[in-house]
Amino acid sequence: MKITNLGIDNQLQQGAKPKPGGKGDDFANTLMDVLKEVNNSQQNSANLQSSFMAGQPVEYHDLMIAMQKASTTLQLTMQVRNQLLSAYQEIDKMSI
What we know:
With 96 residues, the protein is mostly helical. Helices cover 73% and strands 0% of the residues. The protein has three helices and no strands. The longest helix is centred in the C-terminal third of the chain and has 34 residues. The two termini are 38 Å apart.
């Protein structure tokens, strides 16, 4: 899973102030891109597994790497989801 800078540092260094609610699409787009990447790694792993089971020539190390990458990206995504959910629940418990 590729983790990239969203450009916020560059905006802050240039003196631009982030606008609240100004670019909500950035988070949604980033989230969708990450989920697509996780999905692609899962599909790649499944395709290699199917090819291996069908008796087609597949390098064992490529199969194992693809399976581990799919597992790791899914676990990382689930942990990020759990942390976001936990943060939301903490915010929800706060009294105004």
